[in-house]
Amino acid sequence: MFERLREDIQSVFHRDPAARNAFEVLTCYPGMHAIWIHRLSGALWGMGWKWLARLVSNFGRWLTGIEIHPGAKVGRRFFIDHGMGIVIGETAEIGDDVTLYQGVTLGGTSWNKGKRHPTLEDGVVVGAGAKVLGPFTVGAGAKVGSNAVVTKAVPAGATVVGIPGRIIMKSSDEQEAKRKAMAEKLGFDAYGVSEDMPDPVARAIGQLLDHLQAVDGRLEGMCGALKDLGSDYCAKDLPELRQEDFAEVKGEGDSPVGR
Known about the structure:
Number of domains: 2
Mean pLDDT: 78
CATH architecture of the largest domain: 3 Solenoid
Largest sheet: 6 strands, mixed
CATH superfamily of the largest domain: Hexapeptide repeat proteins
CATH topology of the largest domain: UDP N-Acetylglucosamine Acyltransferase, domain 1
Strand content: 5-15%
Structural class: alpha/beta
Low-confidence stretches: 187-197, 249-259
Strand order of the largest sheet: 3-6-9-12-14-15
Number of strands: 15
Number of helices: 7
């Protein structure tokens, strides 16, 4: 028991920079209180003391503002940050190292008995206000954006945003390396391309870099063929694109007006 308690406290330090010491976590983190109360109610539920389990669970809801059904299965190092308004249904399953923020609902979409709530695999992060609804699986390491509404399975490592939830897959390391190399060749600082911020502008720039990479490869092949035929058409270097030419454009994008 004390090992699990120590593990819970360490998980807070790993994921919340505001945590200062163990005593503060023990006394001032309602997310931790909700998890500990759920362990008690879950044990009672497993022993068949259904009404008492619900009573303990309801006390935890009154105390913390977090509602976890006693039948829900919760893994190790589960972290609830802020927590107010969280609802976790009876057949929900949560893996290890999962993080939920305030206002999250792990709910169902039917009144039928049986599995009707989602399963979150290890390392999933669900942002504030998100709703994950239905008996499907959110894969390990996936991220659900704030206020997203997710009703379909999410692959491992993917990011889901919007209403309804749209899956945004990460680019492969090889693709990212090619984009970076092309950006450096052009002398352009692709500050808009960020694997942590899947916005439309970043995706558009990434696709442009992919296209330029393909065009560049085709031109090199054509120049090689012309050189074999004795032509020096491709001997001249292309004009250089200087980073300072883009500095003013980048500065405008960083300003409040540009946003």
